[in-house]
Amino acid sequence: MAETDASSASDGADRSTVVVKIGSTLIANSDLLTPRFGFLQRLMEDIYRLRQRGHKVILCSSGAVALGLKMVGETPENAGVSDKQAAAACGMPMLLNIYKQLGHEYGMDIAQVLLTLGDFEDHRRFLNTRNTVFRLLEADVIPIINENDSITTEEIRVGDNDRLAAKVAQMVDAKDFIILTEVDGLYDRHPDEEGARLIEEVEDVSEYMEATTGKSTLGTGGMTTKLMAANMAQEAGCSTYIAHGEAERPLSSVIDGERTCTHFPPHEARTSGWERWIANRLQMAGSLGISDELADALQSGDRPIRREDIRSIDGDFQRGDVLHIYDESGTERARGLCDFTSEELRVLAVNPHLDAEQLLGYRTKGEVIRAKNLVLLEGRHLLWDAPTPSEASAA
Length: 395
Prior knowledge:
Radius of gyration: 22 Å
CATH class of the largest domain: Alpha Beta
Distance between the termini: 31 Å
């Protein structure tokens, strides 16, 4: 039933929806750690313009931690995890109050949606979150989405609002995804280097990953996470833009093609919501190693992965987690929904000739990943590195 719901994820979507990600350096003054009211005023005014033109807008706003640091007596350079969690708790009410007051000037209502990694990686929670966001849009309310930084730890957090916003764009089947930052877009090298050239259109983000190093003092993501986010949005059929936030009309001027930025056109062949949910991950739950022969056989689309196919297992995962599938050379070939826990799978894999029901105590065909729950990675996605041999455990 879950697969059916996700496959039809676009049924309730409005293809006029625009998802906007705002970086911390645009929200907060880097030196004073105070709100940049001028930018926020221009942003909300432009959101009003877009809504007048029939667009629905979702904001994925950073800035809570930056705005709250002064309250807890810390600086961006010295703040630890607990400091940032406390700062997020202090800064979020301030940030929301600003959005609420500015929105009120234009007759716009806002709502806060705080998410964690599990809200994206667990399919049921993903659908529940999606339904909440759609209901807010239906009520003409602007969802302001952020990671719940006050409670998340390194193990359970997304870690950057770039990819979080891309998952939101995927979730609502958005038409446009705009990442506003402090540079004009993607450059072929660090923009401070002499001769750096702006790349105005990018179809394959993998060609530029090596040129994306460094991140801002206030933010948790650099250009690398923005390219990862763009790739996820492209896969969802969404036009993505990375643009400078300092403009009179920071959003509409991008959509209307009136200023310089980097555009990532959507992939032509759009996949189903279920396939996108499986393929676009924020964290690796675990992985399997298989033979090159099997990896090639998966191309038929009707070949499951069985317990006797497994050569190595990595990670501690639960039933229903998405695993990354690697061939003998360590190249990622597919991602799929696993029908067993890592403990169960290890028991099955090391005893391939014993009856599965005898080993586990319940009846099963022994299909680790069913064919309908496998998504092949065919040049559309950024591939993840395989776990090193010292990290992986043999089946």
